[in-house]
Inverse folding.
């Protein structure tokens, strides 16, 4: 009896994923990075020549920075970004394992905690504004290991095995999450979490094809999630930008709240708050341009 190719491919994939998870959670960090960097050096010459990858990377950088970057600067930025991207899976698996949580707390520092603590004193919860910096998943694990009342809405993979692995990883990492596949239930859970004075962390820099509104990002129109603005207007919860970078050691930056006084015109308020959200994310990316995930078709309308 022949085993269907799809089933065989799925079984092999499960074996590989299980092995990678087992290996990187038990391998010293310096060796994990060495393996990731070596793999990057081997594959980079081939990746760089993939037309679709080049178009996406260089196209996004051209939209964002125009003529501000030379060709050599653009190439160096792409190379640095892709190298960081190769390191990301191993570091997430390493730091996410409970036996390495003490190292996680030591290696990833939190700056600006006072901004979050002041906002939580208001008792309306906090909307944490996130961005797809390369280390954004490490940020969620690190916050989960702090004493902050933290939860993150996220979308699990559709594949059953991957979904189980995903849930297992969140569980051992200590991250509490809301599955956004069920939109109505997710909305209720988010509102309930804010009511319980929790930090709800929303990644808000993806192209939002469904329900997105056109708001400038790097000066160009981009379909943007209006969720942070709507939630803030509905609940009164402040929006606090929380980003991560590894420029000089790994640091989580908690920035001052996004200030806005509602006018009563709901549509205009949503637009203006969302514009401030995009500007906050844009400003951080400009500081660390090689650490944002440039593979998202952000400006596709």
């Amino acid at each position: 009896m022949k085993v269907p190719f799809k089933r065989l491919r799925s079984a092999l994939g499960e074996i590989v994923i299980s092995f990678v998870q087992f290996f990187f959670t038990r391998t010293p960090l310096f060796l994990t990075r060495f393996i990731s960097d070596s793999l990057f050096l081997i594959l980079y010459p081939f990746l760089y020549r993939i037309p679709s990858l080049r178009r996406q990377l260089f196209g996004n950088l051209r939209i964002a920075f125009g003529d501000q970057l030379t060709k050599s600067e653009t190439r160096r930025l792409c190379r640095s970004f892709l190298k960081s991207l190769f390191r990301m899976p191993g570091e997430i698996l390493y730091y996410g394992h409970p036996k390495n949580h003490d190292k996680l707390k030591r290696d990833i520092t939190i700056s600006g905690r006072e901004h979050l603590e002041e906002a939580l004193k208001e008792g309306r919860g906090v909307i944490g504004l996130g961005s797809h910096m390369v280390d954004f998943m490490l940020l969620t694990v690190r916050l989960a290991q702090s004493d902050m009342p933290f939860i993150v809405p996220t979308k699990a993979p559709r594949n059953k095995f991957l979904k189980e692995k995903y849930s297992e990883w969140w569980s051992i990492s200590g991250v509490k999450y809301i599955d956004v596949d069920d939109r109505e239930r997710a909305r209720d859970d988010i509102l309930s979490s804010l009511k319980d004075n929790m930090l709800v962390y929303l990644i808000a820099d993806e192209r939002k094809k469904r329900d997105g509104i056109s708001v400038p990002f790097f000066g160009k129109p981009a379909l943007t999630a209006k969720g942070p603005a709507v939630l803030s207007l509905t609940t009164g919860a402040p929006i606090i930008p929380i980003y991560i970078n590894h420029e000089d050691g790994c640091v989580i930056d908690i920035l001052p709240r996004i200030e806005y006084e509602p006018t009563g015109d709901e549509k205009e308020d949503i637009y203006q708050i969302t514009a401030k959200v995009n500007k906050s994310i844009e400003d951080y990316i400009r500081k660390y341009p090689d650490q944002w995930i440039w593979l998202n078709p952000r400006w596709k309308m």
Strands lie at 108-111, 126-130, 150-154, 177-179, 199-203, 213-217, 220-224, 239-245, 250-254. The mean pLDDT is 91. The first strand starts at residue 108 and ends at 111.
